[in-house]
Design brief:
Elements lengths: L1 E4 L4 H13 L4 E4 L7 H6 L6 E3 L5 E3 L1 H9 L13 H22 L10 H15 L2 H6 L1 H15 L3 H4 L8 H13 L9 H14 L10
Parallel strand pairs: 1-2
Antiparallel strand pairs: 1-3, 3-4
Protein name: Glutaredoxin-2
Pfam families: Glutaredoxin2_C (PF04399), GST_N_3 (PF13417)
InterPro entries: Glutaredoxin2_C, Glutathione-S-Trfase_C_sf, Glutathione_S-Trfase_N, Grx2, Thioredoxin-like_sf
Length: 215
């Protein structure tokens, strides 16, 4: 199966993370940020991720792809009930994490941003979403302080001490992806329990974190 994706896209990371935990091999196909044609041809609109099944059919929307992958082998992994407090923590982080990550993703060497046109397309799209990226980057310290406070809060939640990846909810998948995105932020302070949580799951899923390229 093939997965059309962006490296920086959290929805794509959800699929890659889950496929890695399930041991499902995917052939990864980068879509350039300014490529309007490829996924429109496949599913009728510019969107990632897009999965091409073994029968050639295309499937979009990350949760739909995850549920499809989970049903392939008769041993479902999405069997856990979502934890409300984990979902609430993610919601509380959602907006200001964009302020931290979008400007940093714009400065990274991700393949989908490797041409001037692709990088400009990314800048325009995310500027519409959150405002001027350079201004947001200049305000980083405020948001880093907020992130560090939220990480300390998360360290006390039960989801961080759970080592089981055999039974998951969509919320569990989203938590890993949100934390993975936050690992691009240099100056963030990671409680040991969260760093261990991330490292264990990154190794199991073979989905690398961003600490080495943090900005």
């Amino acid at each position: 199966m093939q997965l059309y994706y962006y490296e920086h896209c959290p929805f794509c990371a959800k699929v890659r993370y889950f496929a890695g935990l399930k041991g499902i091999p995917l052939t990864l196909k980068i879509v350039m940020a300014d490529d309007e044609e490829t996924t429109t041809r496949l599913v009728g609109k510019k969107v990632v991720p897009v999965l091409i099944k073994d029968n050639g059919q295309a499937l979009a929307e990350s949760n739909d792809i995850i549920h499809y992958l989970d049903g392939l082998d008769g041993t479902p992994m999405l069997t856990a009930a979502p934890q409300a407090e984990t979902g609430e923590w993610i919601t509380s982080l959602r907006l200001f994490l964009k302020y931290l990550t979008y400007p940093r993703f714009a400065k990274t060497p991700f393949a989908e941003l490797s041409t001037p046109g692709a990088r400009e397309s990314y800048y325009q799209k995310e500027t519409k979403a959150i405002g001027n990226l350079e201004e947001k980057f200049a305000q980083s310290q405020t948001w880093i302080q907020a992130l560090n406070a939220k990480l300390n809060e998360l360290a006390n939640l039960p989801c961080i001490s759970a080592n089981n990846t055999d039974s998951l909810s969509i919320t569990d998948i989203e938590l890993f992806v949100f934390l993975r995105n936050a690992s691009i932020v240099k100056g963030s302070i990671w409680p040991q329990s969260i760093e261990q949580y991330l490292n264990v799951r990154a190794k199991r899923s073979q989905l690398p974190l961003y600490f080495d390229i943090a900005i």
